[in-house]
Design a protein that fits this description.
Helices cover 12% and strands 30% of the residues. It is of the alpha+beta class. A hairpin with a 5-residue loop joins strand 17 and strand 18. The protein is globular and about 75 Å long. It starts with a helix and ends with a strand.
């Protein structure tokens, strides 16, 4: 928690608002500065809503063997005239308690370049902390391969991911064996050298867009699954940039297996959010978006994969990226995941024999005056306006026979 000393450091080194870490505990200790910062100096809090223990408690002895805790005071904020008793402190960035420290440290990256040149010690310390936190693997999901993990769904309109936060905070990871999913910045430098096979050096394409991308790395066989739940609040087309470097050979699809095994594979699926995380059952896998096949080259340069999600409009689905290897390192990467809303239908109208324009059900009506169509059309025939229009103009009107 920041205190007066940390605030003085902020002023001295021209650092922006401090980062406050919040987690759920039985009674918050030294939470007062965090609550004050949230209302007076606009500190940025990352973590979970705290437990809501604000009142000061003092021990009172009852007899020689027992004592009780009695509330003896309450902090009152000068701005809000309240405290956080029973309500807790709400964070600005809601992530799990395990991810709060990493998220807060990586938030410093935005301010790293503002550090003064005459403070090399502080600059080096911040840079080293950011790199250390980035190299840590994402927090794995608590469920096993046979269970399902409940997570908060995000609307597709807000679910695009370019990994430029430098974290996997919006994702869940399930893994067994060695390695995991990581954020990386340099295709020649392993994100976590301790979990990278030194016999087959890390050598993958640089992030195809921006500074960061997600990739698997390992120093032994295993399976790693990255996933998130998305609510398709409309008709969408999924875009993602997929790449890999495979030291082995992709295995053939084993349709008899009920789950994703540890054979050499990289697959991206759309699955039911209620299904076990690693399930490969037909009634759980809604669609396979990408899968490496036997005979595929050992190296795939970053290339876009697209998939129409319109079939699941209005539903919540799980986007799952799974990589496994038992022959040699399979470094599977992804970047620039985008949910593109599919546009409206073309506007279409019909011309009645009398010269009046009628609306066709499900189609937008012409904005032209119905009594004065711009082009005469013989009764019972159709025509389209073919005059040139700029690329950003509305869809052309169509006349169709009725």
């Amino acid at each position: 928690m920041p205190n007066a000393h940390s605030q003085n450091i902020g002023r001295r080194y021209r650092i922006g608002v401090p980062a406050v870490l919040l987690s759920i505990i039985g009674a918050e200790v030294n939470i007062r500065p965090g609550f004050a910062n949230r209302t007076t100096i606009s500190a940025h809090a990352a973590g979970e809503t705290t437990g809501g223990g604000a009142h000061l408690v003092a021990g009172r002895r009852i007899n020689d063997h027992f004592s009780i805790g009695v509330p003896s005071g309450r902090p009152i904020n000068a701005v809000t005239k309240t405290d956080w008793e029973g309500a807790g402190v709400e964070p600005d960035v809601k992530v799990s308690a395990d991810s709060a420290l990493k998220t807060a440290h990586l938030a410093l990256e935005k301010q790293e370049q503002t550090l003064p040149a005459d403070a090399p010690g502080l600059r080096n310390e911040v840079s080293a902390t950011i790199q250390t936190r980035r190299n840590e693997p994402a927090v794995p999901a608590t469920s096993g391969a046979s269970g399902s993990e409940t997570m908060k769904s995000m609307p597709a309109s807000k679910a695009s991911e370019d990994f430029e936060s430098g974290t996997l905070a919006n994702w869940k990871v399930e893994r067994s064996g060695a390695g995991g999913w990581f954020i990386y910045t340099n295709g020649k430098t392993p994100p976590n050298p301790a979990q990278s096979d030194p016999n087959l050096p890390f050598d993958i394409p640089n992030p195809p867009q921006g500074k960061f991308a997600a990739v698997t790395d390992m120093n032994g066989p295993g399976r790693r699954i990255l996933y998130r739940d998305v609510t398709l609040d409309g008709r969408y087309r999924l875009h993602l940039t997929v790449f890999y470097v495979n030291a082995g050979r992709f295995s053939a699809t084993d349709t008899s297996r009920p789950d994703i095994g540890d054979e050499q594979q990289y697959r991206i699926d759309l699955v039911s959010p209620s299904a076990p995380i690693a399930s490969a059952a037909k009634d759980h896998v809604l669609a396979t978006i990408f899968r490496g096949q036997p005979g595929d080259p050992p190296r795939r340069q970053p290339a876009e994969v697209t998939f129409d999600l319109s079939q699941w409009n209005g539903q919540t689905v799980r986007l799952r990226l799974a990589s496994a290897d038992n022959q040699g390192p399979l470094r599977a990467g992804v970047d620039d995941i985008r949910f593109e809303r599919i546009g409206q239908q073309r506007r279409t109208t019909s011309l009645l024999p009398s010269g009046l324009v009628a609306r066709i059900p499900g189609r937008r009506q012409s904005s032209r005056s119905p009594a004065f169509p711009s082009r005469a059309v013989p009764r019972g025939w159709s025509s389209s306006l073919s005059s040139p229009q700029p690329p950003d103009s509305p869809p052309r009107e169509e006349y169709v026979p009725i």
